[in-house]
Design a protein that fits this description.
By secondary structure, this protein is mainly alpha-helical. It has four helices and no strands.
Amino acid sequence: MMEDIKEHFVEYVALLIGMAVFVVLLVIYRFDKDALLIISGVGSAFYVAWGILHYVLRKRLTRTIVYEYVLFGILVFLLLFTVFSI
């Protein structure tokens, strides 16, 4: 696992920075429901794009991996949508 992280360090740093920006934006716009929904959608889309790009660069992308990332992104968005809509 550590060798994988060392080999793809830049990719994981990009994911970490992207998720940190996502969390910061959620805190900044915590009182604006419309902005929170947009941020949630963009954050989920970023995660899906990152995951697919990560496997494309490894030349190991399969249809199952795409389904996994897309479904997980949709699930997270729907959970956040439900929470922010209340």
